[in-house]
Amino acid sequence: MDFKIEKYLLKKAEELAFITIKHGGEFKLKSYEVPKGGLDVPIKNEVLVKGIKEKTAQDKLNSMSIADAMIYIIGIDSKFKNNAEYEKFLNALSKDIDLDLKSYMGYMSRKYFEIGEHTDSLIYIKAFITMYPDDLDAMYNYAIVCQEIAKQYQKDMDDKAMNAFLLEAMAKLEKVIDVDENFALGYYHLGYHYYNQGQYLKTKLTWEEALRLGLDADLVAEVQENLGKMDFKVQYEEGYTLVFQGKFKEGLEKLLPLEEEHMDWWNLLFMIALGYKGMGEIEQAKMYLEKILIIKPNQVDTIVELGLCEAYKNNLDKAIEYFEQAAKIKEDPEILCNLGMAYLNNGDIDDATYYIERAYELNPQDEITIACLRELGINK
């Protein structure tokens, strides 16, 4: 199983020490034989320290304390070199002492979760799904713990880590409902992930499926309230999807009714402008783009679109003015290429060459830039 968040857990391995148990040595387990070369086994530092303080260190090195640490390292690093041997040990121990490994790992994860130790909680439930990847309840619980850890990273303002754990949770929840289409709570939580990503139509469909499958009354009320509040966002997504599909008239039919209540929503105004531009109604497009600049004077995509509108009307001097304004805000290869092509079409070869070659310097792999260079007769 693939885990995208392991790098955030590896430091926890520092809480383990490793000792070597020898083949044929004093350590015995009825259903398990230590490999002939011996085996390095983990033990939690806290267990060793406690044993040393109490002068019972040797007693602390029992099969259960070793098993717990093996589970811990499997949960930290799913690709640790000895994991396969550790799983043999754990399966043998479960037979010898009638230990339910699933119950144990689930209990340890819940215990740490309840006291707010979410990373340790995650390690145990991650070990669970590493060893038993088909257990959907465990995978669901793993996703829930990932969500809690993401909240902590959000508080710490670590967006990269937060997003990593949110994406991990989403991926595992999607796997849960792929396997079990009736897992209502999976749909419930997935809806929030899609909502936070701005996928409102997908959110709506996901939450409607959760309601159809059945949730507790308090969750039903929560989801219904959320759905009511996001109707306009769903309509917006339907509209911009149609615009991007080239169905400009149908897209505008979805988007324009939203304008009255959302006059300051620049994204909406931008999509309306693109719809009009797609239909060739350039003056209408410009009107909406200019509205955006009143709200967000440095919105660079809007400035670029105004430049493209002017270029479409063959107002090249005005187009150059907009593209130069955009390039001052964001030195982007696509913007520089637009600026260079405007100069080229305006008969200014030197400035055209300067800006397109600058775009190439920023990103030599950019296909638009390479195409612009060919227009100039330059091969790179």
TrEMBL record:
SMART domains: TPR. Gene3D superfamilies: Tetratricopeptide repeat domain. It comes from Clostridioides difficile (Peptoclostridium difficile). Pfam families: TPR_1 (PF00515), TPR_8 (PF13181). This is Photosystem I assembly protein Ycf3. The keyword Plastid does not apply. Keywords: TPR repeat. TPR repeats lie at residues 333-366.
